[in-house]
TrEMBL record:
Keyword set includes Transit peptide: no
Pfam families registered for this protein in UniProt: HLH
Stored PANTHER family: TRANSCRIPTION FACTOR DYT1, TRANSCRIPTION FACTOR SCREAM2-RELATED
Annotated localization: Nucleus
Region annotation (Disordered) ranges: 20-43
One of the record's GO molecular function terms: DNA-binding transcription factor activity
Biased composition (Basic and acidic residues): 28-41
Protein name as it appears in the record: BHLH domain-containing protein
Length: 205
């Protein structure tokens, strides 16, 4: 009897070992499957992040370096610049609306300038010439007004123009402003688009 009991005990131990082995094998397979799913999920996350960074890099005109941290920093700087431009444009729009509501009478000197320009056949206008890929030479003729040159420079800067070699002359009631113009961050400027924008600017001064 003792021999039979001992044999049964050994059989039970053997069966338990087999069951434990099968369970251990299943547990190992489950761990591998879980790790594989996590690996795929991490790859998808990194791929999406890389795609978003590429999109961000395409939107920001001035990227100083291609690493992730620099792309984000340059994007933040660019957003701050855009916010400043928006605030400037808001202030200008507010001033324009306020001046339209007040509707002051034209000053005598402005009336004189307009009459003098008409007398000599001078018309307000803009001439834009391409210098190279991202540089334009702009000549603007507008009526001579007090503070007109300052308003013109402020408006051009607010619209994203970077000005160099600027000169101004006045004659016969007119003001001629010449300047080399580039877009901020070396942005390429179109001749016709720049001309239309300049005409809008001088007509609002």
């Amino acid at each position: 009897m003792e021999f039979v009991a001992s044999a049964l005990d050994e059989l039970c131990i053997t069966e338990q070992g087999k069951i434990g082995g099968r369970m251990g094998h299943r547990s190992h397979n489950n761990d591998d499957e879980y790790k594989s799913k996590n690996l795929h999920a991490e790859r998808r996350r990194r791929q999406k992040l890389s795609e978003r960074l590429l999109t961000l890099r395409a939107l920001v005109p001035n990227i100083t370096n291609m690493n992730k941290a620099t792309i984000v920093e340059d994007a933040i700087t660019y957003i701050h610049e855009l916010q400043k431009t928006v605030n400037i444009l808001k202030d200008q729009l507010f001033d324009m609306e306020a001046s339209e509501e007040e509707a002051p009478e034209p000053k005598k000197e402005e009336i004189h300038s307009a009459e003098e320009m008409k007398k000599f056949g001078i018309q307000a206008g803009v001439n834009v010439t391409q210098i190279d890929g991202n540089k334009l030479w702009v000549k603007a003729i507008l009526e001579k007004k007090r503070g007109g040159f300052t308003k013109l420079m402020e408006a051009m800067t607010a619209f994203g123009f970077e000005l160099t070699d600027t000169s101004v002359t006045t004659s016969n009631g007119a003001m001629l402003v010449s300047s080399c113009v580039m877009g901020f961050y070396c942005e390429t400027l179109e001749v016709e688009q720049t001309k239309e924008l300049m005409l809008e600017i001088i007509s609002s001064i």
